[in-house]
From TrEMBL:
UniProt-recorded name of the protein: Transposase
Keywords: Coiled coil
Originating organism: Thiobaca trueperi
Listed Pfam families: DEDD_Tnp_IS110 (PF01548), Transposase_20 (PF02371)
GO BP field: DNA transposition
Length: 284
């Protein structure tokens, strides 16, 4: 049986193909749409029957969707299971290539549990949420541009009118997409219940809840709190070498920028209006 193990990182994929008792030399692909298609072509050409990769939150999902759509049998394993398997193999060193080889071995030896593609509603909601994020960013840029133009006495009235019209059109598009997203949430019980829980939290309104739910609902439900935090890039990064050792820890910002962005305004609102969050914020 031909199997492949894929170590997934933010920007790169390390791939090892196992044929019989032999592993291929590690191959690297970009963790992008074009990189996924190139990897799919490589795996198909090699006759790979099963693929194993580790659940890494936002990093692995689009790859899993691409491989699944390409017809490959796919297994996504819990990081703890992969770690324990590596320990059982007495793997003492760690690198992307070694991790990929361990995952290929996992696919060969362990019972195969096919990856379950997220529900259509969850994927559609993520698409709505990301488009809303892009439109919101565009509206903010247009408003900033309008403010700058209004400060100049040489800006023609027609230019101001044109920018104002663009803002109004973007507002209408945001309203239309958000309405569609809310209607979609109403059609699925789990989405509806989770949305109600999110909006019950002080600082999280309907707009933020759509963005947050769109990113979280497509991910494995068994992730631990630390994994959720790291997935959003909100985990602290400590400087451990050189002259930086005395600097304060900073957010890694290495995770899902959509989720991180969707949490900003709710966190800001809660830090001002929720006494518990306000106290914690002051403590920081």
């Amino acid at each position: 049986m031909h199997v492949a193990g894929i170590d997934v990182a933010d920007k790169a994929l390390a791939v090892v193909i196992r044929t019989g008792e032999q592993n291929t030399k590690v191959e690297d692909f970009a963790n992008t749409t074009s990189g996924h298609q190139a990897l799919l072509a490589r795996l198909t050409k090699a006759g790979v029957e099963r693929v194993c990769l580790e659940a890494t939150g936002a990093y692995h999902l689009d790859l899993a969707l691409a491989l699944n759509a390409g017809g490959l049998a796919l297994m996504v394993v819990n990081p703890k299971a992969a770690k324990r398997f590596a320990e059982a193999l007495m793997t003492r060193t760690k690198s992307d290539a070694i991790d990929a080889a361990v995952l290929a071995e996992f696919a060969l030896r362990m019972p195969f549990e096919p990856w379950q593609r997220p529900a259509r509603e969850a994927l559609e909601l993520r698409a709505y949420a990301r488009r809303l994020s892009a439109l919101t960013e565009a509206r903010t840029q247009a408003k900033n541009q309008l403010h700058a133009l209004q400060q100049s006495t040489t800006t023609p009235a027609l230019i101001l009118e044109e920018v104002q019209l663009a803002i109004a059109e973007t507002d209408a598009r945001i309203t239309r997409l958000r309405t569609a997203a809310l209607a979609l949430i109403e059609t699925e019980a789990t989405l509806k219940d989770t949305f109600a829980l999110l909006t019950s939290v002080k600082g999280i309104g309907a707009a933020s809840a759509v963005q947050i739910l769109g990113e979280l609902r497509v991910l494995p439900p068994d992730l631990r709190a630390k994994q959720w935090v790291a997935m959003a890039g909100l985990d602290p990064r400590h400087a451990t070498s050189g002259t930086s050792v005395n600097k304060k820890p900073r957010l890694s910002k290495a995770g899902n920028r959509y989720l991180r962005g969707s949490l900003y305004m709710p966190a800001l609102s809660a830090s001002r209006h929720d006494e518990h969050v306000k106290g914690y914020y002051r403590h920081l």
